[in-house]
From TrEMBL:
It comes from Streptomyces pyxinae. The keyword Transferase applies. InterPro entries: Glyc_kinase_flavodox-like_fold (IPR018193), Glycerate_kinase (IPR004381), Glycerate_kinase_RE-like (IPR018197), Glycerate_kinase_sf (IPR036129). Belongs to the glycerate kinase type-1 family. This is Glycerate kinase. NCBIfam families: glycerate kinase. The lineage of its organism: Bacteria, Bacillati, Actinomycetota, Actinomycetes, Kitasatosporales. The keyword GTP-binding does not apply. GO terms for molecular function: kinase activity. Keywords: Kinase, Transferase. It comes from the Bacteria.
Amino acid sequence: MTDGAVSKAARVLVAADKFKGSLTAAQVAERVTAGIRRAVPDAEVTALPVADGGDGTVAAALAAGFERREVRVTGPLGTPVTAGYALRGPTAVVEMAEASGLQRLPEGVRAPLTATTRGSGELLRAALDAGARTVVLGVGGSATTDGGAGMLTALGARFLAADGTPVGPGGGGLRELATADLSALDPRFRDVELVLAGDVDNPLTGPTGAPAVYGPQKGASPADVAALDAALAHFARVLAGPLGPRATELAGAPGAGAAGGIGYGALVGLGARFRPGIEVMLDVLGFAPALARATLVVTGEGSLDRQTLHGKAPAGVAAAARAAGVDCVAVCGRLALPPEALERAGIRRAYPLSALEPDPAVSMARAGELLERVAERLAREWLAS
């Protein structure tokens, strides 16, 4: 379309994820809205920041009207941190990265063998204490590779060495595991719907397991990766004692390897159900009724690349828009997908900031301003008549 009279029917739904390192999802929505209204002042714009279950999931829930609750929990290094979760009525959104994420580590510090998910279990317990009956556990951005053992410990499980003392924290401690006692796990999980929301379907161990694929980004050396893989496999074998064959079966289930294996802990110990994170979040955030009113959807994230096509937020938003017969375009910092891949994903066109500013550092520093400019351009092309 070209500049000219504005269609009075223009109703835009902005449902984009964060631009990691520069803009939160809420800031992306704010900037896109400003750019659209600069070009098409009469456009009706609805902002619905989204997330795929990783870091930013609680922020997306808060933008949708959830209330933030804060609690002091154990950080990945064992020291206290203040973490938040989102609550609306009987539904809670818990983001494991709030308690156990890389963001909780001091600059330059990594602890691949000893980082614990204990704080994530404490967050879950706080959500239950607040009355939650449905809990979405968003996983991603973790500093940990402990198979969820720390989380389960916080909820009443006991993992003991041969001498009867508790094993050490982190995946490294599981090498000494001799017995597992889950009899005192918080009984409320029997009556709570726990949804494991993630964007990866990796198993717990093996070539595509949590240590091999994600351990290096948490500071694990090749020797650490091998040790963690062996420790998590040992963890599953020991759990087969009290839990039977399903303990080893679930180690190979999609999502078991999410966030350093916390997915496995949630599946095997808490009866969680795994769902793609973006599907869960679209349900929780009320995307369907917002989509029903839209004539154009704008989605996006910092980098549109091959990973986007495998469960990331823009792919989920675009698929839903296409199923509803609504055009979807995307904004991004960097575009690494050809037009045919975008079209297959349901994205009619992408508008990268790099088209205006090719220097990545400058683009990230000026992301808000540049995003308003590309939003103004897409509005003129898709909303003007």
